[in-house]
Design brief:
The protein is of the alpha/beta class and 347 residues long. The chain has 13 helices and 15 strands. 38% of the residues lie in helices and 20% in strands. The structure holds iron/sulfur cluster (SF4).
């Protein structure tokens, strides 16, 4: 059996930054309880590992005592949450991904001009709830092509669509097409809202799934981008399973299979990917083949509030950018079988 380990996969720059924020806060304030509003990223292992280190995840700011440190998750929050934090004198550190903040800023800008905003996304996702909160009177959430039929837009020339960052590129395109069939004048956002990480991970699966019998997507069930990767693999003809870790693997899934694609959602740590590969190598003496469609290199700075707190405590902050690059696969970490290099790496 061959394992096709696809790149890019797993952590994106925004998730990497958000996790670093909680890590740094724990190091900086060892005597304080760190509160995180919502799961810092949608991955049960990341959350469990921080809980073991004493972090408290809350869904209501009232659970944090006045004056406590509270970190906003990578998905962003609405202005009302920021106000409530101020009212409770909480010391907020914002770990919102800058690419989510970009969508917030677009929503604010268009709402100020009096435009109608069609926000394409999942209404109950934290990111959409946060963006909607920026201008609830101006924004209509559009979840599906069916929703487009019930839209009532008075002046489509003063309307724009924005999107959740982790949507399926294909689903979003279908919804945009339906919007333009009804209202051709509706404007596109100034730049794509679906982020680079979502786009690249989906493109890699779309390209490689047709050659595979089964796609294993490592990620949690509440991770929007992980669920989308599973759907894309299925739409390309591979069976697909979304698993949190190697312990969910079942040997019977692999009977008679030749090629298994392995990828991971943007919030899934790479050690879980390595463990899945090791398990398959151990069971089936599988060969691992790495195949990349693009290298990612991006930097986000740590939030200003955290850097200020570091300076106050005499920590040398340097530039404190979080540099993120495509994970490097090493033979030792992924199994006993030597790695081969995929076609796209050779080119
Ligand atoms: S998936 Fe995209 S928007 Fe979400 S945290 Fe990662 S880089 Fe940011």
């Amino acid at each position: 059996m061959r394992i096709l380990l696809v790149n890019p996969r797993g952590f994106c720059a925004g998730v990497h930054m958000a996790i670093q924020v909680v890590d740094q806060a724990l190091d900086l304030l060892p005597d304080e309880t760190i509160y995180v509003f919502h799961e810092i990223v949608h991955n049960k292992h990341v959350v469990a590992r921080f809980k073991e280190r004493g972090v408290r995840f809350i869904e209501d700011l009232a659970e944090a005592p006045a004056g406590a440190i509270v970190i906003y998750s990578a998905h962003g929050v609405s202005p009302r949450v920021r106000e409530m934090a101020k009212e409770r004198s909480l010391r907020a550190i914002d770990a919102t991904c800058p690419l989510v903040t970009k969508v917030h800023m677009e929503a604010i800008r268009y709402a100020k001009r009096g435009w109608r905003i069609l926000l394409i996304g999942h209404a109950n996702h934290q990111e959409v709830i946060g963006t909607l909160g920026e201008a609830p009177e101006a924004i209509t959430v559009v979840e599906s092509v069916e929703d487009v039929a019930s839209l009532e837009i008075e002046d489509a020339a003063q309307a724009v669509y924005l999107t959740q960052t982790t949507l399926s590129v294909d689903d979003a395109e279908r919804i945009v097409r339906a919007i333009h069939e009804r209202y051709p004048e509706v404007k596109a956002p100034p730049s794509d809202d679906i982020c680079y990480a979502t786009t690249n991970r989906q493109a890699a699966v779309r390209q490689m799934a047709p050659d595979c019998d089964l796609a294993l997507v490592i990620g949690s069930k509440n991770s929007s981008n992980s669920v989308r990767l599973t759907e894309i693999a299925e739409s390309e003809g591979a069976a697909a399973r979304l698993i949190d870790d190697a312990d969910e693997l079942d040997r019977s899934w692999f009977e008679g299979l030749d090629r298994v694609l392995v990828t991971a959602g943007a919030s899934a740590p790479e050690d879980l990917v390595a463990e899945v590969c090791r398990r398959l190598v151990g069971w089936f003496d599988a060969q691992i083949e790495v195949s990349s469609i693009i290298d990612e290199e991006l930097e986000f700075a740590l939030p200003l509030r955290l850097r200020e707190m570091m300076v106050e405590r005499g920590v040398d902050v340097g530039d404190r950018s979080i540099r993120f690059t495509t994970p490097q696969v090493t033979e030792a970490g992924y199994g006993a079988t030597p790695l081969t290099v995929g076609a796209s790496d050779r080119g």
